[in-house]
Design brief:
By secondary structure, the chain is α/β, with parallel strands linked by helices. It has two domains: 198 residues, Nitrogenase molybdenum iron protein domain (Rossmann fold), CATH 3.40.50.1980; 145 residues, Nitrogenase molybdenum iron protein domain (Rossmann fold, 3-Layer(aba) Sandwich). It is 32% helix and 17% strand.
Length: 382
C-alpha cells in the first residue's frame, strides 16, 4: 500500500512538473502582448497564459530586409521552448552580455545593467565611462568578419547582441555552431528618434529588468514632445538645413523620413533635400550639393574638419557659401573621444531629447539660450 501511494505521488509530481514547465506548450500559445512598442516598428515582446517565459520577436533588423523575422525565447522557471519555435533560446535572464554595437552599451547603461557587459567590439572607440574604466577586464572580441572567437568563448556570454547592415551578420553561423544565443538589435534602422530609444526595452527584457526599461523610456517622449512643442513659439524663421560632406565622388543625403530629417523637423528646421523619399540615403553629385549649400542657412555634420579654416582648405569649392561666411556650421562631435568614438552615436541613441534641444538651440537660439550644447558644437574660425 505504501509503495502504491509512493507511485501515485511520483506520478502526480511528474504531471505537475509537466504542466508547470510547459513541455506541451505550442508556439501559438505565445500570443499575449507583454510589450507592444509605441514608436519602434522592429520588435515586440509576447508571452503565454500562465508562463513566465517570453519571446522577443524581431522583424527586418537590417537595411532592405523584407519579411525577415528572428525570435529569442527567454526560458524562465524551468519552462521549455514551445513546440514549433524556430529561433534562439536564452536560459534565464542574461548576466553576461557581449555587445557588438556601442549604442547597445548605452541602452544597458540607461537601465542600470551596464555591468553585465563582458565583451565589446572596438573598445578604443567606446565612450561609456564604465567600459573605459574597466578596459582591462572587458574583452574586445573584434569586428564582424574578424572575430576572435576564442576570446569571445572565454567570456562565457549568455548572449551576443548583433546588428546587421545590409544582411545577416557574418558571425551568426559560428555562434550557431558554438551554441551561443544571439539576438539582432535593429534600433539603427528605426526612423523615429523615439523608436530608436524604445529598443532599450527589448534589452531590458533580456537582462531581466523590463520594468526599469519601461520606467526609463516613459519619461523620454514626455521631454522630447515638450521640446518639440516649444518650437511653435520661435520668433526666428525656419532655417533651411544642409547635411553631410562628400564621400569619394558622391554626397549622401538622407531621406525626408529619416531619423535626422525628423529631428530637424521637430526642432523647427527645414531639411533642404526633398527629392529622396525612399527609406535610405541616396547619393547626389557635387554640383547639386553646391547648389543646395548655396541656399542653406545652416550646414550640419561637416565631418572631418575641426574649424572653418579646415573646411575652406578641404572643400575650397564651398569656402564662400553664405552659411560658411556666416559661420553657421555645426558638427555633432563635441563628445568625440581620442580613439575616434563619438558619444552622439552611443548615448545619443537613448537621449533623443538632448539631441533635439541642441538642434533647437542651433535653429532657434532664442528658445534655448541658457542651455549649453551637449552633442553639437559650432565650428570655430580657426
Amino acid at each position: 500500500m505504501k509503495r502504491l501511494s509512493l507511485h501515485i505521488l511520483l506520478l502526480c509530481a511528474t504531471l505537475w512538473c509537466m504542466c508547470a514547465c510547459g513541455t506541451s506548450s505550442n508556439i501559438d500559445d505565445y500570443n499575449l502582448a507583454v510589450y507592444t512598442p509605441t514608436y519602434a516598428t522592429g520588435f515586440r515582446i509576447v508571452g503565454a497564459e500562465g508562463k513566465q517565459s517570453t519571446i522577443i520577436r524581431v522583424t527586418n533588423p537590417w537595411q532592405s530586409a523584407n519579411d525577415v523575422e528572428t525570435m529569442l525565447f527567454i526560458a524562465r522557471a524551468g519552462e521549455k521552448e514551445p513546440a514549433g519555435f524556430r529561433g534562439q533560446v536564452l536560459q534565464g535572464d542574461a548576466l553576461r552580455v557581449v555587445c557588438m554595437s556601442s549604442s547597445h552599451i548605452a541602452m544597458l547603461d540607461a537601465i542600470g545593467a551596464v555591468e553585465s557587459v563582458v565583451g565589446v567590439s572596438g573598445k578604443g572607440f567606446i565612450t561609456n565611462p564604465y567600459i573605459v574604466a574597466n578596459q582591462r577586464t572587458i574583452a574586445d572580441v573584434g569586428y564582424d568578419g574578424n572575430i576572435n572567437f576564442e576570446l569571445l568563448i572565454a567570456q562565457q556570454p549568455d548572449i551576443v547582441l548583433l546588428y546587421g547592415v545590409t544582411g545577416a551578420c557574418t558571425m551568426q553561423s559560428k555562434l550557431d555552431e558554438l551554441g551561443i544565443p544571439y539576438i539582432y538589435i535593429g534600433e539603427y534602422v528605426e526612423q523615429d528618434p523615439l523608436g530608436k530609444t524604445e529598443w532599450l526595452i527589448a534589452l531590458a527584457e533580456i537582462v531581466g529588468c523590463r520594468e526599469q526599461g519601461i520606467a526609463y523610456f516613459t519619461e523620454v517622449p514626455l521631454r522630447y514632445n515638450h521640446l518639440k512643442s516649444i518650437t511653435a513659439a520661435a520668433s526666428s524663421p525656419m532655417p533651411k538645413v544642409m547635411l553631410n560632406t562628400p564621400y569619394a565622388d558622391s554626397w549622401f543625403m538622407p531621406s525626408t523620413s529619416s531619423y535626422l530629417a525628423r529631428l530637424i523637423a521637430d526642432a523647427g528646421g527645414d531639411y533642404i533635400y526633398k527629392k529622396n523619399t525612399s527609406n535610405h540615403s541616396q547619393p547626389i553629385d557635387l554640383e547639386e550639393a553646391a547648389l543646395l549649400t548655396t541656399e542653406a542657412d545652416i550646414w550640419l555634420h561637416v565631418e572631418g574638419v575641426s574649424s572653418l579654416k579646415d573646411l575652406r582648405q578641404q572643400y575650397p569649392k564651398f569656402a564662400n557659401m553664405p552659411c560658411v561666411q556666416r559661420g553657421e556650421i555645426y558638427n555633432c562631435d563635441k563628445r568625440r573621444v581620442q580613439g575616434g568614438g563619438n558619444d552622439y552615436w552611443e548615448s545619443g541613441v537613448v537621449q533623443p531629447d538632448v539631441i533635439l534641444r541642441d538642434l533647437i538651440k542651433i535653429f532657434h537660439p532664442e528658445l534655448e539660450s541658457d542651455k549649453a550644447f551637449v552633442f553639437y558644437r559650432q565650428l570655430p574660425k580657426l
